[in-house]
Design brief:
Layout: H1 2-17, E1 21-30, E2 35-45, E3 48-54, H2 55-61, E4 66-69, E5 74-77, E6 79-84, H3 103-119, E7 122-127, H4 136-145, E8 153-156, H5 188-200, E9 205-209, H6 228-240, E10 244-249, H7 252-260, E11 265-268, H8 274-283, E12 286-288, H9 291-304, H10 308-330, E13 334-335, H11 346-355, H12 360-366, H13 369-375, E14 392-395, E15 409-414, E16 417-421, E17 435-445, H14 449-465, E18 470-480, E19 483-492, H15 495-502, E20 519-529
Bound molecules: zinc ion.
Length: 535
C-alpha cells in the first residue's frame, strides 16, 4: 500500500511538470451535436485535454505551451474499432496459416498490426477474440499500457467460447489428427469453466460464438450453436466478475437467444429480423454490424483465397445484410463501429455504414461516443472535451459531409503524444508554386491604430485563416510620422486559394468593410516563392 501511494504521487508530480501543448485547429467537431467550432485551441497536459477554447483565449491561458498548428485540417476525436482481431497475419485467412504461426510470432505480428490502426486514427480497439491459447492479445494490451510498444488502447476478449464443431472450433483437421484448442464447451458447466479461464488471465470481454459463421468449413450461420442455457451461464459468470459479453450472431434465432440471455453486444447481426430488432431496442443491446467485411468477402473472396464453401456462404448471406441494417436503424439501435478485418480497410467500414443508411455523422459517432459508451469509458474518451484523454485525429475536408475524407488521416494524437504527423508531406496543389506571400501595407492615423490592430487580430486574419490553402500570418507595426504603418504578411499555397478569398482574377487589394474608415492609404504585393519548410 505504501509503495502504491509513493508511485501515485510520483506520477502526479511528473504530470504537473510535463510541458503543455496547444493544438491549434481551424475547426473542431462536437461529435454529440455534429457542429464545428472554428479556430480553436486545445490545451493538452498529462495526456489529457485541459481546455478547449477559441484559440486566442487558449493561447493567453497557456502562454508557455508548445503550439501544434494543424492549419486548415478538421479535428475529430480518436476512433475506436470494436471488432478487431489483432494477432498474426491478418491477410492470411487460410486454414494452414494459424497452424504455422506460433503464439510468439502472432504477437509480434500484432505489434506491427497495432501501428496500422493508429495510422488510420484509431486510438482504441476492442479485440473480438483470438484462438491463441497464450492470450497474446492481453500481452499486447499490457505492452501498450506500459509504453513498451505503440498502439491503440486495447480492451480484449479471451478465446472464442464455442461448441465442438462450431464457428469458433479452429481445428479443421481430420478426426484422427490431434490439435489442442481452447474454450470448446458443450455444456453450461463447461462454459462456466472456460469463461473463468478467460477471466483468470485478464479478459475484459467474453466472446461467445452464438451461431455458425462464414470463415470455417463446417458451421451453418443460420443455426444456433451455444444453447440458451450456455449463453445465460456465460453472461452470469462474466457479469458477476464485472466483465461484458459479446456474441457472434448471424442467424435470426441466435441473435434473439443472445439478446434474451442479456448479452451486451451482438456482433454482425447479419440476418436481424423485426422481432430481433425490437428485442434489441427494448434491451438496449449494442450492435456491431461489421458491414464491409462481408461485402469485401463476397466481392473479393476468390482473390483472398476463401475456400469455395466459405465463399458460397458469404455470397448467400449478403442479401440479408442490407434489409437487416435498415431494420436496425429504423429501431434506433445503438450501433458501434467494428471492421473485423485488416486495418487498411478501416475507412471502408465508414463508407459501408453510410451506404447502409447512416448519416456520415452517425457513422463517426458509432466509432467515437457510441463505442466508448459500449466499452464503459464514455466519461474518459470519445469526444474532444475538458478532462478527457487527448486522442485527436486531423483530416482534410469535412467528413460529416463526405466520410471519404477519413481515408486520408494526416495527424493523430493518442493520450497527448503525437503518433502520426504527415503535415509536411501534404503536397502543394498540382501545377502551383508551393508558397505565395501576400504583403499588405495599411496606414492609419495614430489614434486609430489600436482599433485597427484589434480588428486585424480578432477578425480579419482569423477570417483568412479558415480559407483552404492558407499557411500562416504575421502582423508588424511601426510609427511613420503621424501615422502608424501596419504590415501583414500572409502565406498561401495556391493562387486559386487567394482568388477564392479575393474574387476571380483578383490577387490584390481586399479591404475589410470594417477597416475601410480606419485606413488612410494602402498597397500590396503578392509574390510566389519556391519554398522549403524546415521544421
Ligand atoms: Zn470477428
Amino acid at each position: 500500500m505504501r509503495s502504491a501511494i509513493v508511485l501515485l504521487s510520483l506520477w502526479a508530480a511528473a504530470a504537473a511538470a510535463e510541458p503543455r501543448a496547444l493544438v491549434r485547429a481551424a475547426r473542431v467537431l462536437d461529435v454529440q451535436k455534429g457542429t464545428w467550432s472554428a479556430d480553436q485551441g486545445i490545451v493538452v497536459a498529462g495526456g489529457r485535454i485541459e481546455s478547449v477554447l477559441p484559440f486566442a483565449q487558449a493561447r493567453s491561458g497557456a502562454p508557455d505551451a508548445a503550439i501544434i498548428d494543424l492549419g486548415d485540417l478538421s479535428v475529430l476525436p480518436g476512433f475506436a474499432d470494436c471488432h478487431a482481431h489483432l494477432l498474426g497475419n491478418l491477410k492470411d485467412i487460410s486454414a494452414i496459416g494459424s497452424l504455422r504461426m506460433s503464439s510468439a510470432q502472432g504477437a509480434i505480428w500484432g505489434v506491427s498490426n497495432l501501428k496500422e490502426w493508429l495510422d488510420r486514427g484509431f486510438t482504441t480497439v476492442r479485440d473480438a477474440g483470438e484462438i491463441d491459447g497464450a492470450y497474446g492479445q492481453f500481452a499486447l494490451r499490457e505492452g501498450v499500457a506500459r509504453g513498451f510498444i505503440q498502439g491503440p488502447r486495447i480492451y480484449a476478449a479471451g478465446s472464442y467460447v464455442t461448441v465442438t464443431g462450431g464457428h469458433g472450433d479452429a481445428n479443421q483437421l481430420a478426426a484422427d489428427q490431434r490439435l489442442d484448442r481452447f474454450n470448446l464447451a458443450d455444456t453450461p458447466d463447461a462454459v462456466a469453466t472456460v469463461v473463468r479461464r478467460d477471466l483468470k488471465y485478464g479478459a475484459d470481454w467474453i466472446k461467445l460464438m452464438g451461431t455458425g459463421g462464414i470463415v470455417d468449413p463446417f458451421s451453418d450461420y443460420t443455426r444456433e450453436e451455444l444453447s440458451d442455457e450456455q449463453i445465460a451461464r456465460a453472461v452470469e459468470v462474466a457479469h458477476r466478475a464485472g466483465r461484458r459479453v459479446m456474441v457472434h450472431a448471424e442467424g435470426t434465432g441466435g441473435i434473439k437467444a443472445a439478446v434474451r440471455a442479456g448479452v451486451d453486444s451482438i456482433e454482425h447481426g447479419t440476418m436481424l429480423d423485426e422481432e430481433g430488432a425490437a428485442l434489441m431496442e427494448k434491451g438496449g443491446t449494442w450492435l456491431v454490424p461489421t458491414l464491409y467485411t462481408f461485402q469485401y468477402g463476397a466481392e473479393q473472396g476468390e482473390k483472398l483465397g476463401l475456400e469455395p464453401v466459405m465463399l458460397a456462404k458469404v455470397r448467400r448471406i449478403i442479401s440479408a445484410q442490407g434489409p437487416a441494417f435498415k431494420r436496425a436503424i429504423a429501431h434506433h439501435l445503438r450501433i458501434v463501429f467494428g471492421l473485423d478485418n485488416s486495418p487498411d480497410l478501416l475507412p471502408r467500414e465508414f463508407a459501408a455504414l453510410v451506404r447502409g443508411g447512416m448519416t456520415p455523422l452517425q457513422a463517426i459517432q458509432a466509432a467515437t461516443i457510441n463505442a466508448q459508451e459500449m466499452l464503459g469509458h464514455a466519461d474518459e474518451a470519445g469526444s474532444i472535451a475538458k478532462g478527457k484523454v487527448a486522442d485527436l485525429v486531423a483530416v482534410r475536408g469535412d467528413p460529416t459531409r463526405d466520410v471519404s475524407a477519413l481515408e486520408n488521416v494526416v495527424f493523430v494524437m493518442k493520450e497527448g503524444a503525437v503518433v502520426k504527423d504527415a503535415r509536411a508531406s501534404v503536397p502543394a496543389p498540382k501545377g502551383e508554386h508551393p508558397m505565395i506571400m501576400r504583403v499588405w501595407h495599411g496606414w492609419t492615423k495614430t489614434k486609430d491604430a489600436e482599433e485597427y490592430n484589434r480588428l486585424l487580430r480578432d477578425e480579419i486574419l482569423p477570417g483568412i485563416h479558415r480559407i483552404k490553402g492558407y499557411g500562416g500570418s504575421w502582423v508588424l507595426r511601426r510609427a511613420a510620422g503621424d501615422e502608424v504603418e501596419f504590415v501583414t504578411i500572409t502565406t498561401w499555397d495556391s493562387w486559386a486559394a487567394i482568388e477564392e478569398f479575393a474574387g476571380k482574377g483578383r490577387t490584390k487589394s481586399v479591404i475589410h468593410p470594417k477597416a475601410a474608415h480606419l485606413l488612410t492609404r494602402h498597397d500590396e504585393q503578392s509574390v510566389h516563392f519556391d519554398a522549403a519548410w524546415v521544421p
